[in-house]
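dumping this here before i forget
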Amino acid sequence: MTRTDNNNNRRNLFRRLSGRDDVRRPPWSRASFLDLCTGCNACIDACPEGILSRGGGGYPELSFAQAGCSLCGDCATVCAPQAIERGGSVSEAFAWQAEVQPHCLALASIHCQSCQDACEWNVIRFPLRPGGRPPQPEIHLESCTGCGACYSACPNQAISLLTKEKDTAYV
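structure:
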């Protein structure tokens, strides 16, 4: 583990202890992102959704507060130092997947399907249930890209984006 990795792990530990989420980086960010990124802002300027901003240390950070990522790849295309390198499928763009939390409105039998409506990949579905019971959300995790569209669309903030693999550090 490099010194940068140790510093990032420590920083994320303090963020979690303070109640803040881990820093999320652009899609297809390489494991050596912080070593390669020059902080040039090219990816931030290229992002059509405006979900990238300059964060701590001058590095780009991703926020799904207002919108999700369309996975257009513009950020990777303009990244001269190749800290963001699009290679592989859209399902490999992020190290996290969506998960519905217990305070979901649909789980409380309140009609809401905002996450399904926002999911361009049709990963979130509300199948009919027998006996006229209200539909419940189901996420097809194998197809979830982690794009965050459902996260930003949820009126009750009941979507979490959880890391797929514990040893993958996207910081």
